[in-house]
């Protein structure tokens, strides 16, 4: 298991990282508070393989029952003061999921960053590769994703955008847009 924190933070938080690594290896991150800059709720799992990293910035809140999985040369990068609500799942496989600073994910959000390829009907889907055209997720700074919203592979959400509860985001969302529904459509923009 690899677990990465940006190099620039290493000096100031070295000892905390050691504690964090220890807790993470137990795989049931039953930690109330690591220190002032990061909060990990109960039963939250951060898991990677040796080729992947989860980058935590300062003052992040990751609440209860959250799963962050990065595998097969993947990165999950959380900016400063990112908030992640209960039961949210973020998965990255062979790609990058990036969440900008001050962005909030409400409860039960799902960031799904990879599709199976399935175009060849004569081959089992699980034997086909991943879809390399629609891959990865980028969410800007100061966004708010409502409860139960789902973001599909290849999507970029611009800075300041708001995604309604239970929206399914299949296409890019421009900066400061408010998008709702399945598939998510822009209904207005923030002033
Ligand atoms: C997206 C959202 C922020 C918009 O709020 P708003 O600007 O006050 O929007 P309005 O209530 O004026 O709704 C505008 C239109 O969008 C529709 N709409 C609003 N939210 C919607 C949603 N989540 N899904 C589908 N349609 C939605 C409304 O029905 C309305 O449609 P109409 O014009 O046909 O009547 C809000 O509706 C929402 O989904 N909030 C998420 C709440 C949440 O998840 N909280 C978690 C706690 S952190």
Molecular structure report:
There is one protein chain. The chain has 191 residues and is mainly beta. The protein is built from one helix and 21 strands. Strands 1-4-7-10-15-18-20-21 form an eight-stranded mixed beta sheet, with no helix packed on it. Strand 20 and strand 21 form a beta hairpin. The longest helix is centred in the first third of the chain and has 17 residues. The radius of gyration is 17 Å and the shape is globular. The chain starts with 9 loop residues before the first helix and ends with a strand.
Query: Number of helical segments?
Result: 1
Low-confidence stretches: 5-12, 25-35
Beginning-to-end CA distance, first to last residue = 44 Å
Strand percent estimate: 35-45%
Helix coverage percent = under 10%
Give helix and strand order, one letter per element, not per position: HEEEEEEEEEEEEEEEEEEEEE
């Amino acid at each position: 298991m690899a677990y990465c924190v940006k190099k620039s933070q290493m000096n100031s938080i070295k000892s905390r990282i050691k504690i964090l690594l220890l807790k993470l290896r137990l795989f049931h991150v039953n930690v109330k508070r690591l220190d002032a800059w990061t909060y990990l709720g109960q039963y939250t799992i951060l898991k990677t393989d040796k080729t992947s990293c989860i980058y935590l910035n300062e003052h992040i809140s990751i609440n209860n029952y959250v799963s962050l999985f990065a595998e097969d040369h993947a990165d999950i990068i959380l900016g400063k003061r990112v908030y992640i609500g209960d039961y949210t799942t973020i998965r990255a496989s062979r790609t990058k999921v990036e969440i900008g600073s001050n962005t909030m994910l409400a409860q039960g959000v799902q960031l799904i960053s990879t599709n199976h390829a399935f175009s060849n009907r004569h081959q089992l889907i699980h034997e086909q590769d991943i879809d390399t055209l629609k891959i990865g997720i980028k969410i800007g700074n100061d966004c708010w994703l409502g409860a139960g919203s789902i973001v599909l592979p290849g999507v970029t959400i611009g800075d300041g955008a708001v995604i309604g509860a239970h929206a399914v985001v299949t296409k890019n969302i421009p900066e400061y847009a408010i998008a709702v529904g399945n598939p998510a459509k822009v209904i207005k923009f923030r002033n």
